[in-house]
Each structure stands twice: as C-alpha cells, then as structure tokens.
Amino acid sequence: MTTVSMSRSWLLGLVGLAVAPCLLAQAAGDLKLKDWKPRTQLVVNETKILRPRFPVIDMHNHLGRLENTAKYLEEMDKAGVWKCISLDGASARDRFKEHLSVSQSVGADRFVVFFRPDWTKIDEPDFGAKEAQRLEEAVGLGVRGLKIAKDLGLTVRDKSGKLVGVDDPRIDPIWAKCAELGIPVMIHITDPKAFFTPLDELNERYDELNAHPNWSFYGEKFPPKDEIIRQRNRVMARHPKTIFIGAHVGNMPEELHTVGMWLDTYPNFYVDIDARISELGRQPYTARRFFIKYQDRITFGTDTAPSAEAYRIYYRFLETDDEYFDPAGGHHLQGRWMIYGIYLPDEVLEKVYNKNASKIFAMFKGAKQ
User: What pTM did the predictor assign?
Assistant: First the structure.
C-alpha cells in the first residue's frame, strides 16, 4: 500500500468515527416520547405473592359484564379474596336487582352490592325522601351500601343548568337514611390533582390523559377540585352518624397529610386505597407512616374487575419491601414512575385487608345475613 493510500484510509476511518455518533444522535432525535420504553438496568428483589397473608375484602370493585361473574369468582379464589363489593347497583331501571340476582346466584356470601342514586330525578318534588325510600327497599333485598360516583358535584346538573353540589340539601334524606340503616357510603368525588391542571408538558399524567382526554377536568366548564372536596366535608360534618368511605384515598393521595387532617376531623370518615397504589408507592416512607397511624380507618380496594394478577401487585405493595416495580398491572398506566413496597406489620395488614371492612358492615341495623 502506498503512503497516499494509507493516508486516505486513515482519513476515511476518522470520518467514519465522526459520522457514526451523528447518525445515532439523529436516530435518537427521531424517537417520539410515546415510543420510548426504557428498560431499567437496576437489579432488585422481586417477591412473588400468590395469596395474601390474610383473607381480603375488596371494598371497591366494578363487576362490569355480569355474565363474567363466575369467572370473577374464580379469580377471587386464586387470589385469596374473601368478598368483593360491586358498586354498580344503580337505582335507574332497577339495575341493582339484576346485580343482586346474579351475584347471589353465583356466590351468595362472596359478593356485596351497593346502590347508586338516580340523579336524573333530582328535580322531582321530595327527590331525597323518595330515593331514600328506594334505598331502604333495596337494602331489604340485600343491598349493603350506597355508592356516589364522581359525577356528583362535577357534571350532574338540574333542569336549571346549575351544578348539583355534593352538599345539595335535596340529598340530605339519603345521607340520613344510610345512618338509620347502618350502611356505609362509598363516595368518589373529583379525581387526581393532575386531571384538574392543563394538559401540557408539565402534567405528570400526560400519557393517561392523552389516551383518555375526557378524564381532564381543567377549565371553566368544571368547578375547582378543592370546592368539591369542601362540599363533601360539609356533608360529613352535617351527618356525623353516617359512615363515609373516601374512594381513592379520599381522592387526595398526593397529599397524605391533608387526608390525615380529614381523618382527624371527621370520626365517621374512612378511606380505601383502590387504584392509588401508584401514588402511595412513590412516597413509601410517608405512606407507611400513614397506614400505621390510621390503621383503623383504611380499607382495601382495587377498582378493577377481579383479577388474580392485579390483586398480587397490591399484595406486593402492602406486604413486601420490594423496590422499583411497575404498578400498572394493578389498574392501568397512571404515570411514568415505579413504586416501592411498604411492608406493613401483620396487625396493620389484617385491618386493611378485612377487619376494618368487617367492622363497617357490622354496623348494619337490619336483619343479618
């Protein structure tokens, strides 16, 4: 090889070394965030928990397609779930009767149905008294609780176009009837804090909201989150003999100190953890202290049709000290972060899994089943 040829080869090699990183950088620049699925290089312990340390009462569930109820029971059996509460027993069209019939035929002692009021009748004279009477009749047939969905205070309007607040006095007879019957109110108001902020580069739940834009409640069309929460708190103060269970950690898991203040202020207030281990698990030290301090006021829930695999992610969060694991299988993708287990003591774990729920249902004042 001549000196000129050697020089040319050497120069081409240098050019190749320079161009390769540029091509890689260009390829990386073309990668869209939605396609970015990094694989962690972290090697941590993975604990497999097939069944919980104690039997579970799932206080927050939606059975969805009733024809799948037998399948759901199989999933419960695989995952060590003792009872499952179905929150879809609507008053409208007597939907609760169908839920009672199916659940009792498949597993009479395994499913519990809650009643949902029919807000389309809010303008009728004596709405509260009439709906309270329907609730009492439903309880006579087997219903054991009341479910309030997030549309109350957020989207439900009367004929005048005015939003119906959670603390609307027309609803008071229903809250009072729950106390009279000794049944709890599972109350879901508002949604995560991020759902009430702009859908922009600062929103930590961007992926979720981009996939479900109708979950965004930002803008003048909707009331502020804090106002709806104040409405709920006024109702709890007005009805101290009624037990309220705040779904989704009272829908303020981002501020556990605030939830703690509510629990301190309202003795009739409980919370469940359904669909919020993604929030709890990214603050494991604070969450563990919260669970231990308020161990008598927290119930278990998933907000997911019974699935053994989903339940097992909850068990891993509650029972182990595993680090940096994905919670999405317990519900769905909620944020781009991993969670950490809070390894609860047995005494606390048993209360969360079943004792607190059993205590609430023991307040029932009708004929025991």
Answer: 0.91
